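About this split. The held-out portion is used to measure sequence recovery: a designer receives only the structure tokens and must propose an amino acid at every position. Recovery is the fraction of positions where the proposal matches the reference. Here is one held-out target exactly as it appears in the evaluation file.
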């Protein structure tokens, strides 16, 4: 710790101590003269006059009082200096009249200068950062004029090493009877570390911590200004919504650390592909936004997008691994595709999803038709939510027929949505229900309704049909699906063999997932299982061998060409169907043909040895009471 320095003492205290020292010197001199005179009187055998003794006593008392006052002032100034050292503050005093500036040793130490490095306040002003001088002068002038009760200002001062340090200066002026400032004194604190922390906080609030790119918060601050500038200049502006393809697969397979390295590499590549005026932001996750000001048209935005696609597609070498990814980009242009930031971003996002729907790894410009489709999609989603709550869902049943003897042995429960007086088929709304998560609510209602209907037919009909119920792959994402189905069967006292559950081949995407275990539990309990739309998805013979299914359902796209009318290569279609039937029988599985519409279809399937069929040849799907009236015989 630096020793105390008289310059670090408060100026008023030092002035008072100096005045006491002068007064003490005068009193001491007078006392000395008085004592000398007294000695003269003693030497001449004359005693000192009485008044001399009284004056001497008074002077002595005054001397003692002055010594005590000096000691008290020294304690006060010493304590004040210690406090300043403890707070790491430096002291200063300034004469506003002659501009003399004096600073303490601590302030010199903060800035790295030698003691007494300043001759006047002008020299101090030259050390202040040029951007901060006006504010500093204004703060000083405001206090000198009495506008502010005290002086306080934060500003940058150049240190001996050439770097600027942030200082917080505070002080107060001493004024004469007319209110004119004659002296100003105070302290200075080094706040460089605090300012650096604040700058880091501001940076993190506006930048992505992983890639260092500006984040969405900064995007939403800057884009409106860029739009206003483009509108004023009559320019166009492009917004590119960039989404990485297959990033989640890489992140899940190789870990988040590898995924983070890829994101940083992609961020650098996108930035390098842009023009000098352009800026890229990280939207979040694997999404980036590029803003292109001052473009002449769609061609400029398209060229930049193509450069980004090429840069992102190049192989990456990270942590000793060869990584590959691609990107899909949606493009929206100001002013044609939107006049504000939210609209441009939303339309660029819409265009990106349109490109994803076409296979991804490409760029796509927004069009109003996309917006119309999006609006229809949003309206459909809202209506679907109301349909679930309002009881607009219905189950219709299509008969499944034995090919050999024509008996109705089963009924597939097919979901219908009665909306605005018409029935909407499931392929129009089931994808929306799956994407939004509403499929779980719909699926529960279908299970409740179909199993209840099967129980009524089992109680009322002589030969009740086995009811087939379709399950969405997403219903397996929630645990307890098998337990819930079994509980329903037990609640209705319905034999497990009365129900067949149909799943699509998409359950094979994750053979290690919960779906296979749930299906095995259902199969062990006695329920029948069918693999729907066989041959159209992710068919794998190795998985099929391990699946606990009883039956394969051949998709109607393979059945239609069998009639030979307006069909290409009917012989190839027949060969495929014949092979599926033979394979299924070799695995002890029965086969259902879907979409049988003509007698020619049925005859061909009979020759091939198909077990069951369903389709418009016999009947479309019907409401439960109409199905029972047409195909079931009461007990």
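Reference sequence for scoring:
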């Amino acid at each position: 710790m630096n020793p105390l320095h008289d310059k670090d003492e408060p100026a008023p205290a030092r002035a008072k101590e100096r005045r006491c020292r002068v007064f003490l010197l005068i009193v001491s001199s007078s006392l000395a003269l008085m004592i000398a005179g007294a000695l003269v009187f003693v030497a001449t055998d004359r005693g000192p006059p009485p008044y001399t003794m009284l004056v001497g006593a008074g002077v002595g008392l005054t001397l003692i009082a002055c010594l005590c006052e000096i000691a008290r002032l020294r304690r006060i100034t010493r304590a004040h200096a210690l406090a300043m050292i403890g707070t790491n503050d430096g002291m200063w005093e300034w004469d506003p009249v002659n501009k003399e500036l004096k600073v303490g040793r601590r302030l010199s130490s903060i800035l790295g200068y030698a003691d007494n490095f300043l001759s006047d306040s002008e020299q101090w002003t030259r050390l202040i950062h040029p951007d901060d001088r006006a504010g500093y002068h204004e703060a000083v002038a405001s206090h000198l004029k009495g506008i502010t009760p005290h002086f306080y200002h934060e500003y940058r001062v150049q240190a001996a090493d050439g770097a600027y340090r942030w200082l917080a200066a505070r002080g107060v002026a001493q004024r004469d009877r007319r209110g004119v400032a004659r002296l100003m004194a105070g302290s200075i604190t080094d706040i460089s570390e605090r300012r650096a922390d604040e700058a880091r906080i501001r940076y993190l609030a506006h930048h992505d911590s992983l890639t260092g790119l500006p984040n969405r918060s900064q995007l939403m601050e800057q884009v409106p200004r860029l739009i206003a500038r483009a509108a004023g200049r009559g320019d166009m502006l492009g917004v590119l919504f960039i989404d990485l393809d297959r990033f989640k697969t890489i992140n899940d397979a190789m870990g988040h650390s590898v995924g983070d390295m890829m994101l940083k590499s992609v961020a650098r590549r996108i930035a390098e592909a842009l023009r000098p005026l352009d800026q890229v932001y990280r939207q979040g996750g694997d999404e980036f936004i590029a803003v292109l000001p001052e473009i002449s048209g769609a061609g400029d935005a398209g060229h930049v997008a193509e450069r980004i696609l090429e840069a992102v597609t190049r192989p990456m070498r990270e942590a000793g691994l060869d990584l590959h990814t691609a990107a899909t980009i949606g493009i929206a242009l100001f002013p044609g595709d939107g006049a504000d930031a939210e609209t441009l971003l939303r339309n660029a996002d819409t265009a990106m999803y349109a490109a994803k729907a076409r296979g991804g790894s490409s760029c796509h410009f927004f069009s109003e038709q996309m917006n119309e489709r999006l609006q229809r999609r949003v309206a459909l989603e809202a209506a679907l939510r109301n349909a679930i709550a309002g009881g607009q869902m219905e189950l219709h049943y299509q008969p499944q027929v034995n090919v050999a003897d024509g008996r109705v042995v089963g009924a597939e429960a097919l979901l219908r949505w009665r909306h605005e007086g018409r029935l909407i088929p499931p392929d129009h709304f089931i994808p929306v229900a799956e994407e939004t998560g509403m499929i779980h609510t719909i699926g529960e209602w279908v299970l409740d309704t179909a199993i209840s209907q099967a129980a009524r037919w089992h109680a009322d009909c002589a030969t009740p049909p086995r009811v087939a119920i379709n399950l969405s792959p997403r219903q397996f994402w929630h645990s307890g699906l098998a337990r819930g189905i079994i509980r329903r069967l037990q609640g209705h006292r319905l034999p497990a063999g009365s129900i067949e559950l149909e799943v699509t081949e998409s359950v094979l995407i994750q053979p290690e997932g919960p779906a296979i275990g749930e299906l095995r539990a259902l199969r062990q309990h006695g329920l029948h299982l069918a693999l729907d739309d066989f041959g159209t998805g992710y068919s794998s013979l190795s998985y099929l061998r391990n699946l606990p299914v009883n039956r394969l359902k051949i998709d109607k796209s393979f059945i239609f060409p069998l009639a030979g009318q307006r069909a290409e290569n009917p012989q190839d279609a027949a060969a495929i169907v014949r092979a599926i039937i033979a394979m299924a029988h070799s695995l002890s599985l029965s086969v259902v043909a879907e979409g049988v519409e003509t007698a020619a279809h049925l005859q061909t399937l009979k020759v091939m040895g198909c077990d069951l069929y369903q389709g418009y040849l016999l009947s479309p799907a019907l409401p439960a009471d109409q199905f029972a009236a047409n195909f079931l015989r009461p007990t």
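Annotator remark: The two ends are 105 Å apart (CA to CA).
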